[in-house]
Amino acid sequence: MPLWNPPSPRVRELMRQGAETALRPRPEWLAELDAATLSGQAQQVAADPVLAAGTRRTNRSNLLFWAACNVRAPGEPVPANDGDAPLAIARDLVRRGLDESALDSYRVGQSVAVRVWTQIACSLTTDAEELRELLDVSLRSISAFVDETVAAIAARMHVERGELTRGTHAERREIVALLLDGAPITRQRAQARLGYALEPTHTAAVVWADDPGADLHQLDRAADALAAAAGRVPPLSVLASAATRWVWVHGLPDADHVQDALDGLPAVRIALGSPAPGVDGFRRSHLDALTTQRMLARLSSAQRLASYDEVELVALLTQDPEHADRFVKRVLGDLATAPADITDAVRVFIAEQCNASRAATRLFTHRNTLLRRLARADRLLPRPLTGHTLEVAAALEVLQWRGHGARDQS
To answer: Which top-rank group of organisms is this from (predicted)?
Structure first.
């Protein structure tokens, strides 16, 4: 830390007041900070739900750490934040094969923090000299704190990289990375080093927890449950990050068995790829599982189990979330915010090829009740369901997979 001249008592008091405000950050400040940091991240980080969530946690941890230090000792140098959140993101970045350049995004976030702090500072005093001293010391403090914290995370990444290059997890990751990249490694050599046959049909899965503080042993139990649901051949499981496992099993896991297992693993979420044979299937199913996981994150979906076969259309439609929102609003109109019994009636009616009797049976309701719900849906739709069933079905699929927050915005 360079030579630090403490501010005047008055400015120390102003910094304490401002830090107390920063300890209660407005949601819009956090949203802007997250957006700036993730926009500065490598695409691999921003698109990965676990890495993106880790970045958001680190943003909050850094903001609250700096503010808390300035409440306790306003205007004094703030040490690096070496708490759980920044160290967890260091481990996860290394396990994804990223280097220290991924930390440049925190410089982007720093500019947002400086702007927000300037707004806070300007609300504390109208005295030009006090404001000048307050901004001088606080902006230097923020800059030094970010430098120290980024250096601490980078140092942890260096240590983690060394640890990751030793042991069986590292070997499995190396071989899997070669297979996913299409590198010229023979199937026989890969199988021998992985202890997993590559000729059969595979189903890949991304198994993860949104909360890194959860019992992460549940991830390994979920991998075993997937294998049991597919026929009990031991799974191939690779540590992708502290809260993520990449898993492959032979065959197609029974969805009901997997759902039963998830009921006892409340921290776990699973995205499944499509089953496919051989080395190409090993790779393609994994990419499908990643697409499924990222779609769930993009739509803020609360679903804990999803397969690529279920979401392929929605994944394509929602690659541009803003465009997808406009599509849903244009096609569904007021039906987008209708009660679930109305939207479910339309969805099942279309799925049953517009056969009211079959749809009523599937919904365990009387046919006349179904017809009344369909009539109400027709009044809510901008255009009649007849003649527009394909568009309505697609929009309802997007609506079904979106989280409540996204739905409320439409």
So the answer is: Bacteria
| Sequence-ordered list of residues with C-beta below 8 angstroms from that of 44, at least 6 positions apart, any chain | 51, 96, 98
Spatial contact of 382 and 330, defined as CB atoms under 8 Å apart: yes
Cα-only R_g, the chain: 26
For residue 179, list its beta bridge partners: none
Query: HEC profile for the chain?
Result: CCCCCCCCHHHHHHHHHHHHHHCCCCHHHHHHHHHHHHHCCCHHHHCCHHHHHHHHHHHHHHHHHHHHHHHHCCCCCCCCCCCHHHHHHHHHHHHCCCCHHHHHHHHHHHHHHHHHHHHHHHCCCCCHHHHHHHHHHHHHHHHHHHHHHHHHHHHHHHHHHHHHCCCHHHHHHHHHHHHHCCCCCCHHHHHHHHCCCCCCEEEEEEEECCCCCCCCHHHHHHHHHHHHHHCCCCCEEEEEECCEEEEEEECCCCHHHHHHHHHCCCCCEEEECCCEEHHHHHHHHHHHHHHHHHHHHHCCCCCCEEEHHHHHHHHHHCCCHHHHHHHHHHHHHHHHHCCHHHHHHHHHHHHCCCCHHHHHHHHCCCHHHHHHHHHHHHHHCCCCCCCCHHHHHHHHHHHHHCCHHHHHHC
Q: Which of 190, 197, 185 is nearest to 171 (CA)?
A: 190
Residue 2 CA, chain-centre distance (Å), reads 38
Q: Which residues of the chain have pLDDT under 50?
A: 1, 165, 404-410
This prediction has a pTM of: 0.62
Report the amino acid identity of residue 342. Answer: I
Which residues make Cβ contacts (< 8 Å) with residue 18, sequence separation at least 6?
70, 117, 120, 121, 124, 134, 138
pLDDT at 163: 60
Report pLDDT for 404: 45
CA 330 to chain centre: 27
What the chain holds in terms of domains, given with CATH numbers, is: 9-164 (1.10.490), 201-312 (3.30.70), 320-409 (no CATH)
Give the chain's length. Answer: 410
- pLDDT (0 to 100) of residue 203: 96
Give the integer Cα–Cα distance in Å for 32 and 11: 27
